[in-house]
Amino acid sequence: MEDYNRIRPLPVGYAVKETDDWCDIFVTVVFQRQGLSELIGRECGVERHIQIFKRLGIWNEDGNSTPKAGDIITFNWDQNSQQNDGWADHIGIVEKVENGIIHTIEGNSTNNQVQRKTYRIGHGNIRGFASPLYK
Fold this sequence. Notes:
Number of strands: 6
Number of helices: 4
Shape: globular
Number of domains: 1
Strand content: 15-25%
Radius of gyration: 14 Å
Order of helices and strands: HHHHEEEEEE
Strand order of the largest sheet: 1-6-2-3-4-5
Helix content: 10-25%
């Protein structure tokens, strides 16, 4: 939380609190600590972050497509089928993809922790991906 709040100006002028959902704060701070914020923008709300991804030209709305390691994956837990174009309410980082399985690292996951998770390609809750333009 402190790392996110330290950089000014704050996205949408909001200082995050310990009681906030923090999956997107986690993703933002991972990129921020590596000096890569310009690749994905800074945000604490998943749906607003998707708007940033769209402006950056890195958004892929197709939850059936195959992401790459380093992509940002978003989820809509309220819809369990593709094409999933509902409200995104979770976000993580793709660690790797192998044998049709997406391996992610996600903050604010089960038991309020950072955890590794797996999903099959085309999983119904996947909202889409952002593919940062790494150099």
